[in-house]
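User: Here's a structure from my thesis project, written as structure tokens. My advisor, Dr. K., wants to see whether a designed sequence matches the one we expressed. Can you design one independently, without my sequence as a hint?
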């Protein structure tokens, strides 16, 4: 384990032979003093980015960032132990926690200071929880040790090295202005004894439930500041130092829009505080949100002294990727100004070819994609587009997630298409939005169809007032004519009608509610279309394709049916994935009945820009059936009966009419005023309350949250598996040379291998086998690149547990 490269040192390094980091990924080792100095400087970068956090400063008497910088300076000081040094240089196991020993240096830096306990709490928990958990918490490992036992366990510590490091720490703290002038230099003391005493002070402070909820959130924020500084310095990362959303940008955007803004865009730009924006597709809703954000960024920067971040959230990965591309075309700095924050961000960067100069070298592109995704996870960009779930991870707190919560402080949030979330997820998003507001955030909610019931929920969630801005009526173009059919989408008569439109050389979109129906419809309709217009004219899209295949499918759809080119005749059969994911334009829609929000989104894929006479959008009668898991009846086994039935009755009343988008909001309000709407409101409120109690109270801020993390993964994350037939190819991609020196870059190799993964719902993990060597789930199924996953094979009990139509 001994590195041949010389360590990176300070010019006046007090301990040039003591290391904090060994060599890794082409980087030289770092001395302990160098790393502590770099982390202190990184903490200053974090402070400049986040600014004053009013909640935290109120609790710490204005000393929040002073405490954070002390924590950054001392967090790894315990690596002075001889056992830790042998572990780095020779690979000898040590088995102890350096952060515990780091506490021993604090009494020399902060003698008799009330701030010391706060700093100690953040230092000792920057890797492991203090209490609880199935794994070894610090309390379980060290809570019963007396000084002598602790001294024997930790092993030798060179007293001369301790003295020199302590003197350097004091001098560095004084140079940084962290200690008042005239504070005494380090006195006598025993490092291990001081560490043991301070550790028990921390335990006494936090092992019981906090009485003041503000204490818990400040504890998590301080932990986040220290861990974020540590990660930033360890990665040698660089943050964007400014926010592109400036008044100059607003002027350029106005010029780009022709110098004349719509009234709702001007109104949004003048709002000071939270915004609710209701505007139809094609009315410049995104530009209005950016103009609003410019105003908020300026105000929050003045209030906090920081550099506010903009988080633009959407419910679906494809729509996130499309929005990131749109932002890149609008903002100075292009795609480098925008980070993509979701579970497959590296795949996005690979797909968008951030390294076009590599001439098709996917290994080089994969390395750069992984690096870019890692930079975004370290909060590099001040503008990020992603799912709200990545931000919700801040609620998990702890060393891994508290930095997410800190970075959300003093930020600006745009929640687009909020109506697309089910009651559970909506409740969670509302709960975290309330916390963002308390941490200095400004929030905007955008939608073409924002029902009054959701407006009321938002007003109840946020403490400050919200300004409702609506697009003028003349922007609600008559784009669609509603037709209803008293038969199911898969009925032979429905198929015959679709064939007629295809025979007329129209661009036809068919949207089913589940994968099985989509594959059935495609099998019937596609052959004639392919024979008439070629193989590229018929396309199937759903959520059960390999990652790489789905990206290729979406590119084909965009090329043939996108709004920027001339429409070509042809067919797309899709599931819900088409609702808000693709900028496409069709001549006619055939869709299964679904909740009104989903139906209106599907309408938006037809005559998208309103440049043609109203186009037919044909909705077919729902077919209800029970689920094997759960009670009640569901439209096509997917959507609960009540909202679908209410929406269907309303559409039947308006059969044959041109759809007025402003009036469609009234349709939604009618649904939400029903008994189902009252039940929905109660359900959202219940989920919001549950999430606040389970995740956002921080009653035990330094307790392990392993159980909550498991629950979070089950709530928000699906699973992915590699097909058994693809396993050899997957293995080859993992180990293929991807580094410049001909070796394998594990992260880049895994990214290339992930192109073979097929998404599955979280519960479907039981249908898979776990490959321990490759660390991937494996599913035995029938698959081809045109139809996707069509069956799952295996033991009888596995086959009976899975019906394709039950999976969205």
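Assistant: Designed independently from the structure alone:
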């Amino acid at each position: 384990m001994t590195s041949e490269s010389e360590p990176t040192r300070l010019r006046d390094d007090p301990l040039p032979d003591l290391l904090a980091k060994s060599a890794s990924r082409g980087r030289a080792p770092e001395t302990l003093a160098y790393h502590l100095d770099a982390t202190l400087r990184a903490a200053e970068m974090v402070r400049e980015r986040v600014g004053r956090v009013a909640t935290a400063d109120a609790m710490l008497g204005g000393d929040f960032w002073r405490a954070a910088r002390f924590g950054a300076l001392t967090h790894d000081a315990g690596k002075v132990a001889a056992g830790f040094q042998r572990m780095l240089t020779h690979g000898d196991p040590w088995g102890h926690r350096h952060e515990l020993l780091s506490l021993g240096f604090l009494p020399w830096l902060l003698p008799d200071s009330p701030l010391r306990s706060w700093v100690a709490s953040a230092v000792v928990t920057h890797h492991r929880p203090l209490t609880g958990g199935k794994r070894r918490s610090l309390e379980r490992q060290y809570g019963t040790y007396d000084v002598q036992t602790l001294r024997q366990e930790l092993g030798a510590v060179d007293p001369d090295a301790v003295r020199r490091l302590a003197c350097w720490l004091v001098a560095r703290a004084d140079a940084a202005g962290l200690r008042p002038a005239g504070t005494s230099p380090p006195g006598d003391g025993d490092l291990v004894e001081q560490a043991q005493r301070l550790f028990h002070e921390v335990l006494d402070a936090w092992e019981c439930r906090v009485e003041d909820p503000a204490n818990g959130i400040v504890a998590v924020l301080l932990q986040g500041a220290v861990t974020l500084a540590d990660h930033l310095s360890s990665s040698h990362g660089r943050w964007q130092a400014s926010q592109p959303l400036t008044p100059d940008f607003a002027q350029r955007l106005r010029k780009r829009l022709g110098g004349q803004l719509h009234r709702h865009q001007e109104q949004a730009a003048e709002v000071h505080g939270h915004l609710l924006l209701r505007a139809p597709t094609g009315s410049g809703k995104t530009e209005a949100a950016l103009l609003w954000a410019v105003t908020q960024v300026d105000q929050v920067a003045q209030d906090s002294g920081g550099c506010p971040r903009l988080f633009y959230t959407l419910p679906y990965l494809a729509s996130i990727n499309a929005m990131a591309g749109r932002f890149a075309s609008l903002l100075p700095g292009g795609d480098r100004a925008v980070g993509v924050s979701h579970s497959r961000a590296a795949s996005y960067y690979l797909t968008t070819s951030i390294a076009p100069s590599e001439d098709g070298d996917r290994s080089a592109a994969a390395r750069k994609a992984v690096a870019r995704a890692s930079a975004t996870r370290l909060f590099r960009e001040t503008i990020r587009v992603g799912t709200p779930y990545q931000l919700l991870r801040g609620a998990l707190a702890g060393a891994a997630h508290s930095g997410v919560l800190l970075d959300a402080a003093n930020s600006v949030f745009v929640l687009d298409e909020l109506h697309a979330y089910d009651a559970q997820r909506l409740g969670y998003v509302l709960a975290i939005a309330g916390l963002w507001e308390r941490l200095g955030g400004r929030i905007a909610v955008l939608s073409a169809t924002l029902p009054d019931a959701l407006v009321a929920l938002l007003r109840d969630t946020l403490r400050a007032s919200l300004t409702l801005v609506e697009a003028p009526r003349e922007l609600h173009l008559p784009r669609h004519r509603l037709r209803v059919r008293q038969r199911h989408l898969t009925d032979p008569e429905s198929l015959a009608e679709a064939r007629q439109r295809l025979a007329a050389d129209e661009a036809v979109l068919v949207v089913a509610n589940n994968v099985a129906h989509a594959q059935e419809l495609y099998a019937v309709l596609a052959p004639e279309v392919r024979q008439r217009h070629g193989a590229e004219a018929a396309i199937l899209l759903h959520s059960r394709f390999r990652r790489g295949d789905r990206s290729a499918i979406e590119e084909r759809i965009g090329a043939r049916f996108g709004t920027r080119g001339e429409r070509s005749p042809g067919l797309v059969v899709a599931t819900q994935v088409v609702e808000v994911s693709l900028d496409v334009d069709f001549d006619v829609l055939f869709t299964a009945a679904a909740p009104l929000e989903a139906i209106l989104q599907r309408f938006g894929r037809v005559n998208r820009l309103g440049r043609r006479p109203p186009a037919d959008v044909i909705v077919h009668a729902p077919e209800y059936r029970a689920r094997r898991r759960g009670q009640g009846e569901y439209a096509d086994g997917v959507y609960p009966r009540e909202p679908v039935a209410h929406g269907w009755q309303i559409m039947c009343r308006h059969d044959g009419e041109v759809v007025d988008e402003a009036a469609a909001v009234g349709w939604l309000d009618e649904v939400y005023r029903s008994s189902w709407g009252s039940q929905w409101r109660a359900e959202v409120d219940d989920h919001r309350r549950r999430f606040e109690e389970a995740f956002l109270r921080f009653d035990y801020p330094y307790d392990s949250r392993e159980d909550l993390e498991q629950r979070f993964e089950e709530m928000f994350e699906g699973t992915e598996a590699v097909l058994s037939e693809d396993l050899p190819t997957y293995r080859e991609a993992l180990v293929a040379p991807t580094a410049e020196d001909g070796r394998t870059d594990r992260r880049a190799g895994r990214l290339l291998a992930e192109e073979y993964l097929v998404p599955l719902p979280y519960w479907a993990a039981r249908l898979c086998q776990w490959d321990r060597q490759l660390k991937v789930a494996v599913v035995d199924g029938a698959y081809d690149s045109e139809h996707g996953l069509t069956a799952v094979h295996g033991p009888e009990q596995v086959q009976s547990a899975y019906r394709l139509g039950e999976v969205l």
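When you compare it with your expressed construct, this may help: Residues 213-234 form the longest helix (22 residues).
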